[in-house]
Amino acid sequence: ETGVTQSPTHLIKTRGQQVTLRCSSQSGHNTVSWYQQALGQGPQFIFQYYREEENGRGNFPPRFSGLQFPNYSSELNVNALELDDSALYLCASSRRGSSYNEQFFGPGTRLTVL
Amino acid sequence: AQSVSQHNHHVILSEAASLELGCNYSYGGTVNLFWYVQYPGQHLQLLLKYFSGDPLVKGIKGFEAEFIKSKFSFNLRKPSVQWSDTAEYFCAVNAGTGNQFYFGTGTSLTVIP
User: Fold this and answer.
1) A8 phi and psi, to 5 degrees?
2) How confident is the model at residue B70 (pLDDT cuts 50, 70, 90)?
3) Which residues from chain A sit within 8 angstroms of residue B51, using beta carbons?
4) Cα–Cα dist A87/A29, whole Å
5) CB B46 to CB A104 under 8 A?
6) B69: which of A51, A83, B18, B29 lies 20 to 30 Å off by Cα?
7) Do the Cβ atoms of B99 and A107 come within 8 Å?
8) What is the pLDDT of residues A58-102, one digit of tens each?
């Protein structure tokens, strides 16, 4: 088990709604990355937050947004949900400035869009 | 953009058989390489990693991987698999100073007792 926690565990929304997912990073970590893992696929990088600012973004539309708080926890917000947004959303924390760039993953939030 | 290819989508082995899972990546610069495992109902866990030095790296649970720079490969191996190795295995690449991890599509391993 890593020290990364995510909430909620499962979530069901309908198309067009908005959702907020939360992540608490492992103690001592200052960087949070978010990934989308569709069924049968590998995780796809959404974005990363460091010092409360977005620091790198994958190929996701602007309706995917995030926040990082002073305690390094983070939120992922998705507006105008689409059916294809149904996936496992993973949060990973790491420490920028450490000797290597290792990420520790949380258990994920399973989002179902109906 | 970087990409990661895992050629074996589903592998079925009997216990004690040897395992090799292929991983190739496309990026010409310095890379950090990882293998993650996802056991049924559990989160992604790091099996092993390569940053520099000896291209043969050893991880947890008897797994090892070899980085072959000329082939852009980082194949995962285990001499003798166990039923408990049944899981999804993901190869991941991170460019030397970049923030983004690129994952392969995963290989589902089923070990038959």
Assistant:
1) -75, 180
2) very high
3) 100
4) 25
5) yes
6) B18
7) no
8) 899 999 999 999 989 999 999 999 999 999 999 999 887 665 568
